[in-house]
Amino acid sequence: MIRAAPPALPDPPDPNDPANTVNGPLSGVSGGPYAGGVLIKKEADVGWTKPVNEFIAQFECTGGERTVTKAFPISIGESLHGPISGTQTQGIIDAINDVKPKDKTVKLSTTVSGDPAKITTWTLTGIEYTRTTYDVYVITQAVPAMERLVGYIVIDTPKALDTSKEEKPCPPPPTPMIELGTGYAEGNNPPPNSFFDIFFNILPDDGIPPFFDYGKVYIYTGGALYGGTDVRPGETVSFEVPPGTYTVSGEIGVFGLHFTIPGQTVSPPAGQNIVGMIIEVTLTVIEIVWVIIIIIVFVIILVAYFILRRLFGGRGGETQPPQTAPTEPTTPGQTPPSAEEPEEEVDRGGQS
After folding, report:
1. What local confidence, expressed as pLDDT, does residue 191 receive?
2. Distances in Å between the alpha carbon of 11 and those of 2, 7, 51, 79, 149?
3. Are 54 and 108 spatial neighbours (Cβ–Cβ below 8 Å)?
4. 219 bridge partner residues
5. Cα(325)–Cα(17) distance, rounded to whole angstroms?
6. Is the confidence at residue 178, as pLDDT, over 90?
7. DSSP structure class, residue 210
8. What is the distance between the alpha carbons of residues 153 and 240, in angstroms, rounded to a whole number?
9. What distance lies between CA 226 and its chain's CA centroid?
10. For residues 66 and 186, is the Cβ–Cβ distance under 8 A?
11. pLDDT tops 70 at residue 110
12. Is the pLDDT of residue 309 over 70?
C-alpha cells in the first residue's frame, strides 16, 4: 500500500550525481562485501518521536500504581535508486539480514496511577525511536577502487513512551475499577494481542530449511528489477521509491524448488502530484506455507500406509476367496450332480 511516512526515509540518491561516487577504498565500512559487491556504512544514530493518540489505562474511582507493558514493532525501511541487478539485490537482502534486530518487537513499560476520588485516564501521546541508518554502496570498479551510493537501510527501534493523564471528579456512587487499553498488560511480559500473533510466532522467521524457504520480496518497475528485501512473519518493511508503477512479488521455496507468489501492483493516486511513494510489504505467505505443510504430511501418511499395506497385507492378512468345484456340462432335462452330495452308483446290468 502507499502511505505517508513522517519522518520520511532518506531520499534515494541520484545515480548521476558525481557526489554519490567514492574514488578509492570506502572508509568506515560496517559490512560486506556482499553479493554483487554491496557494501554498507553505518551513520550516527538519531532520535525522533512519532506522535500517537492511544488509550493506555483508566482508573475509575480507585488509587494505586500499575506498571503496564506493550510490545511495539521495530520498523525497517529501504530507500534505493534502482534498477539494480539480481546479484546486487541478493547482496542488499543479505546486508539487511545482517543488521536487522533479532526481535521484531520491543516491550516498553510505563507507570500509571489513580486517585480514589477521581477518574484518571492515561493516553500514549508519542513513541520515541532510535533511528539507525546504513548507507548502501555498490562496487562499480575494483582497480582502482570505486563505489557508488545507491540507497539506504533504515531501522527504527522504539525506546521510550510519552504519556499524559486527564483527571475528572469521581461521580457518586463510586464504582472502582481499572481498564487497560488493547495490547497492554500488567507486569513486564505482555501476552500476544490475539490468536494471529500466536500463529505468526509459530512460523519460524528463517523458514524450515531445507524444506521451506520464504520471506524474499522483489519490486519491479517497467519490467526491470528495482530492488528487494527480506520480510519475516508478522513483520512489515517499507520501501521508498520515486513516483511510478511498481509490482511486488514474493518467492517461496519448497524442497529446493522456488515459486513466485504474485503480489500487488501499486501506482500514485490519480490526479495527485507526489514526490515519492512508500510501499509497505508484509509477509502474507503464512497460509500458503501451512497448506503446503498439511499437504506434505498427508502425502507422507498416505505413502506410509501403502508401504505398510504392501509389506504386511499378503502375510495372513488377506482372505482367500472360496474354492468351488468345477461344474460338469449337462444335457437338457438332466439335473447336475450336487457338489456336496456324491452321485449314487447305479447297477446297469452288472456295470457300475
Report:
1. 56
2. 16, 11, 22, 7, 12
3. no
4. 227, 248
5. 99
6. yes
7. T
8. 10
9. 21
10. yes
11. yes
12. yes
Closest CA to 218 of 185, 189, 247: 247
**Quick check: 231 and 282 in contact, CB under 8 A?**
yes
- Specify whether the CB–CB gap between 187 and 175 falls below 8 A: no
Residue closest to 18 by CA, chosen among 146, 117, 106: 146
d(CA 229, CA 216): 6
Its pTM stands at 0.71
* Angle ∠(288,294,299) on CA atoms, nearest 5: 125
CA angle 115/118/119 to nearest 5° reads 105
How many CB atoms within 10 Å of residue 346? 7
* Percent of the chain as helix, strand, coil, to the nearest 5: 15, 45, 40
How far is 34 from 59, CA to CA, in rounded Å?
Answer: 54
C-alpha cell at 312: 504386511
Q: Write the CA distances from 302 to 104, 296, 306, integer angstroms.
A: 38, 10, 6
Helix (H) or strand (E) holding 135: strand 118-141
Task: Tell me, rounded to whole angstroms, the distance of Cα 218 from its chain centroid.
Answer: 14
